[in-house]
Design brief:
mainly alpha; Dna Ligase, domain 1; two-stranded antiparallel ribbon; 16 helices; 50% helix
């Protein structure tokens, strides 16, 4: 009976069996390939650097991306030959992302740019450290290039003027960018910032863009109050036009290697450095910090006045008293020195 039934319905039974097998295969494939497998609470990122191996990637997915079934991810990744070709980068993982979408991104190096921000930086070392903390590249590699005369020259700068290349801002950039590509990108941003309008304003002042940045760096170190920048810019431009030395205290601090100096003494003024604007007329060889856009634009749009002198206010507010004559300046300076003495700042 059973044998006769099977013979009579063999085609139907085989069809059902085949359908069940195909259905099982489809479910199995769906589970491995298309079933959501990552469940972070919100879009998250994994960072793969040159030291990250295949096993490390799997651990990152379990620890940071809430991977439900790492075994299915591993199986598909091996099918798609990803493990031998781990690529560096910053990769986004969305809630309910499936294995196929992620493996494709990882295998092709399809990553999402990160937001790089740097502001309020004085030295090359500080800049390298700030970049190091936000990108895969090593700060020391960046610092080596900033101190390499040949490399700086290829970008149109010197070791002294290279800080002017960097315009403080926020940039969209790939996390695994190389030092070479990073420097090239900064040169593109520099060229984009120095528009024809800005260049014409610099030319009208008798300055190059690098000289504008150099003066802006002094101004930014001179005052903690940004609304004074145009006034200070006008003052220093008056001095340059009159052939007077800038006599800017921040340049002395830079020459001394100590930005924390609160009182400039005769021994500091005697430092033999091209950055000492008490000893040498004109602008120093390059910026003494990486100037902000606001400081650069203050130089390009200076206040017009007859001031030649400035002195910190005796209330230590960070503001300055400005003077058109030396006699007036000496009165301002005497009040400030008296307050320094009263506070026992020597």
């Amino acid at each position: 009976m059973n044998k006769r039934f099977f013979i009579q319905h063999r085609s139907w039974i085989c069809g059902v069996a085949l359908a069940l097998i195909l259905f099982s295969c489809a479910v199995w494939c769906y589970r491995i390939v298309w079933m959501p497998n990552f469940f972070p609470e919100k879009p998250t990122y994994i960072y793969i650097d040159e030291k990250t191996g295949w096993g490390d990637v799997c651990r990152l997915l379990e620890d940071s991306a809430a991977c439900q079934h790492i075994s299915t991810f591993k199986l598909l990744a091996r099918w798609m030959k990803y493990p031998p070709h781990v690529r560096t980068g910053r990769y986004r993982i969305d809630p309910r992302m499936d294995n196929l979408a992620l493996v494709r991104n990882l295998r092709s190096g399809h990553q999402e740019a990160t937001r790089l921000t740097f502001h309020n930086i004085r030295t090359k070392e500080e800049l390298a450290e700030r970049i190091d903390s936000q990108l895969m590249l090593h700060g020391i590699d960046l610092l080596v290039r900033m101190n390499d005369s040949t490399w700086c020259d290829s970008l149109g700068f010197t070791r002294e003027t290279i800080p002017a290349l960097f315009i403080p801002n926020t940039y969209e950039i790939y996390w695994n960018v190389s030092p070479e590509r990073f420097m090239a990108r900064m040169k593109q941003e520099y060229n984009r910032f120095w528009t024809e309008e800005r260049r014409k304003k610099a030319e009208a002042l008798g300055l190059t863009p690098v000289e504008v940045s150099t003066l802006a760096s002094i101004i930014e170190e001179e005052s903690a109050v940004a609304d004074e920048y145009p006034t200070i810019a006008g003052l220093y431009l008056n001095r340059l036009k009159a052939g007077m030395p800038l006599q800017a205290d921040p340049t002395v601090k830079f020459a001394a290697g100590d930005f924390a100096l609160q009182r400039i003494l005769d021994k500091h003024l005697a430092i033999d450095s091209p950055y000492n604007t008490y000893k040498y007329a004109g602008l120093p060889p390059g910026p003494i910090r990486i100037p902000s856009i606001r400081a650069i634009d203050a130089v390009l749009n200076p206040a017009h006045h007859r001031y030649f002198y400035m002195c910190a206010k005796e209330d230590f507010s960070g503001r300055h008293n400005f003077a058109a004559t030396l006699a007036e300046h000496n009165r301002n300076a005497n009040r400030y020195r008296a307050e320094l003495n009263r506070r026992k700042i020597y």
